[in-house]
Every structure is written in C-alpha cells, then in structure tokens.
Write a structure and sequence with these properties.
Length: about 140
C-alpha cells in the first residue's frame, strides 16, 4: 500500500480495557501517577495531546509471541506503556501507594523503562524518553 492511498492507520487512537471497578482503578492511576481522569458515563479515562508529550516520545504498536514473558502473567494478553516525566519518581510514587514495583529497570539509547503491577494485576510499562535521541549511524 502506498502512502497516498486512503484507509491507512495513522496512529493509536486509544487503549481500552476491562476492570472489575473502573472508578477505583482510574482513581488509583490519578492518585499514584498523576493521570488526570474523568468519568465518561460508566467508563473513566483521559486523552493525551501530542503537545503534552516530551519531544522525543512516540507511540509504538508491536505484536509479541504468545509465550512472551515480557508482560509478566501469561494470562495478560496486552501491556500498556505509559510515558512518564521521571521514571524514578513514578516508581517511588507507586511504591509509596503500596503498589507493586518490578525490581528490574532498563536503560537504552531510546529511554529508561520500569514496570509496575496495577491494582487489577495488569503489568504496566513506564517509559521515560531520553532528552535527545541519538543520531542514527549510516
């Protein structure tokens, strides 16, 4: 498909998932990680503007093998990656709220990563983008 054809995907428009108590989970994310949420009928959520993201942040869409250990619990079929302004502070906030912080962290040219488990048992990746993306070698 060429770039001038219509019907192409342009980006991720949302992430939707189930919770036994959507209001409680939304409140936890708001109180723990500062994700400002609002009630939309029986759902709770927020929207992100590209202007509010760090300059070197981007959205990744990626498929993983069904036996990946990257998501933690083998029953978890997806993992959300949230962009944070300071990984260490975000992990400390989760820890202070009594949440589960996975001990491992990773640092790469494209940023720093840490993982938490939210109150519903979802493993969530936190990503602090780098201040500057390294130049690609030719």
């Amino acid at each position: 498909m060429s770039n001038d054809q219509k019907g192409r995907v342009l980006g991720v428009g949302g992430v939707f998932f189930r919770s036994p108590d959507p209001a409680r989970l939304a409140s936890w994310y708001q109180e723990t990680l500062g994700l400002v949420t609002e009630a939309w009928g029986t759902t709770h959520g927020t929207s992100f503007s590209p202007e509010g993201m760090p300059p070197n942040a981007f959205t990744v869409w990626s498929t993983f093998a069904s036996d990946t250990e990257y998501f933690g619990d083998p029953q978890q079929s997806f993992m959300i990656n949230l962009v944070v302004d300071n990984l260490d502070a975000a992990l400390a906030n989760v820890r202070a709220a009594g949440g589960e912080v996975i001990p491992e962290k990773e640092e790469h040219d494209f940023g720093r990563f840490g993982w938490i488990v939210d109150p519903d048992g979802n493993r969530v990746e936190l990503w602090e983008p780098p201040e500057k993306i390294p130049e690609k070698e030719e």
